[in-house]
Amino acid sequence: MKILISGGGTGGHIYPALTIADEIKNIIPDAEIIFVGTVTGLERDIVPRYGYEMRFVEVAGFKRSLSFDTLHSVYLLYKGLKQAKKLIKIEKPDLVIGTGGYVCGPIVYQAAKAGIPTCIQEQNAMPGITNKILAHYVDKIFLGYEEGKKYFKTHSQIVNSGNPIRKEILQYTRLSGIEELRLNDGMKTILVFGGSRGARSINNAMVDIELALSGKDNVQVLHATGEANYTEHMKALGARGGVKDNIHIVSYLHNMPAALSVADLVICRAGAIGLAEITAKGIPSILIPFPFATANHQEFNARVLEDKGAAKVILDKELDSKKLFDEVENLINDSEKLQNMRVAALSMGKPIAGENIARQALGVWALNSKKPHFVGIGGAGMSAIASVLLSKGIKVSGSDSNNSNIVERLTKEGAKITIGHDAKNVADADYLVLSSAIKQNNPEVIVAKEKKIPVLHRSDVLSWIINDGVGVTVAGAHGKTTTTAMLAFIAKHADIGATALVGGDVEQLGGNAISGTGKYVIAEADESDGSFLKFNPGIAVVTNIEDDHLDYYGNVENIYLAFKQYINNVKSGGMAVLCADNPKLSKLVKEISIPVVTYGIDNGDYTAKNIRYEKNGTKYDLYVGNNFLTEVNLIVPGIHNVQNSIGAFVTATIMGIERNKILDALAMFTGAKRRFETKAKVNDIWFVDDYAHHPTEIKAVLKAAKQTGSKRIVVCFQPHRYTRTKLLLQEFIHAFDDCDILAVTDVYAASEDVLEGGTSDVLVDAIKKGTGMNVKYTPSYDDAFQYLKDIIRPGDLVMSIGAGRADLVIEHLIKEMK
Length: 818
Fold this sequence. Notes:
- About 40% of the residues lie in helices and about 20% in strands.
- The chain has 31 helices and 34 strands.
- β1, α1 and β2 form a beta-alpha-beta unit.
- The longest helix is centred in the N-terminal third of the chain and has 24 residues.
């Protein structure tokens, strides 16, 4: 695909454009990106250094008074529009992005007129005139500051993305920055700069402050004066005796990422990108806006931070040494104030704004009637996305190794599906979609790369669907499919026009997806490979955090940090719904700044009391704090489903759904397939299938099974992945304590190779030694069938458990019993 990016005149427009371009290349390495600028702008020198091609048009800014220069600008605008139209016709871009400056006006306008998907990114709280005009024509507007929204009265979709920052800004730690800059780690650091050329007024005010702080053992200053002002500044200090070695004066900071990593307080101007970097790092600041910025936009930017408690503002006309020193002393010696400002700054920071802008801009392209091809279209997650795209009128093709009910359903919905993977299946696809289960040596993936057809993960496409509306995403090691399914069914029953994508079939939804025209997009968020970090939901739900997927994350701390980032990715004005029964989530509540509602069986804002297990389901009283709210009735069994239903109730309430409709839907909800799914009841034997494959999930499912009052619980279990079996071996030993008879088949490997210590025979031996229970290693499905058919008897609850196909054993047993 080909993308034109235009933005120029100043670094404030150019560097965001470069960051967005780099992020697009990370997502689609073969994307051809061309920059459009003017021959007189800084972009002419800066952009080629980053390896991107450039094209040029002639255009100039307008003077605010009638003069020859104004008339000349009108002529250049007319000329620029003609050149832009010709350039669009020659390059035939798939997507055009503007980041501000006069140069992007003609390019973005002509692209929009030609029907090409277009986006603009506005860095400042007070938008520039070019973006104000373009807003009437583009498909999507990305805002650096939410406060800028009031200046755009337009049909375009507005996204409070934040400003894109260089990834290097986040790569330095304080320790690595200290080492790089040779500073003292035992001192608080004040970082001072005034832009690449410096700021004379800031430099002048700093002379007295640096002399006053010279020789202090608790604070150090790192001051970049600008090359033009360095000699003058050093003379002013020298004339008054100079400074000690805790005051570091440089003409230019060549490593700003390192400098920001060590700063406890920043004194600087209020350029939009500089402030984006400061808030992403969570640095308190004293801001002195440049007084001659166009439309005084720097003061607007600075006031936003001040209003949120992240900064103090001193206007340039009011700046003097005493005023600045009083503010510095007030902050640097008050750790509590600095910490409060740090938290406020972090709450405003958008560290992955560039990635989010790139991803959503690509979504504008991809959802504009393009033709995706799904490799492995029959998978639970893949099929849901394909179904939603089909409902939007997008032509979907796909392939799968096997035919299935899902494949047949998608075919009826209009998808063109081939059984078997073959290079010719790709045909004229605009982009390829695949899940983590599809390997890179798949013939369709190979030919797509040869043809430079974008190859995207399914989570990329899902993020476009979610981020295009108000996303309600459900994440967690377990319980997310059922909670998502409950929410989807509630939304369907309430008829709010929601779109929903569930990670499993739900009979009451007619599949695993529903498509609507309402604002809400309900979706399961998969944390297994970190892909849930691509989402910017309006409501983020988390059922629990467990030590799962250690093959990807490496350790529990990384899992915790990923969930923290997932919650912090919530859109401005959104909130999180977290299960307080989970210790890790209870801890996390205290570390995030967005609004949170908690729930649980015993802990949280919403809790369940007086839980009653009955023959036809479960009842409980729902409380808010100490106050009774309502009675809830469920058909689906188990304490874990009580917990799931509270999460669904709370989230649906936040979505504005009427309480009686929520309660009616929960009382009718029969569950998602493979979640305590009744397969049959034959000869007083109850056959159930469940997808549980993590020890905590298995414990919850078997506890629910115990609560049914069945005489014995008989289980056929198939472990999922060698890595999980090995890493969680000790947790698996007691996961089956509530079952009476256990058969364990060989591991369902998914895409993994055999791993020593992670095989089923090792697991069986560990369970025998650890519990002494009746467990047998039955390598194949047939082995399990032969073993269990002679053991089961009336009154038993017989379950297949696991993410593989242990349900085939249950199906054979049902046929045998009949």
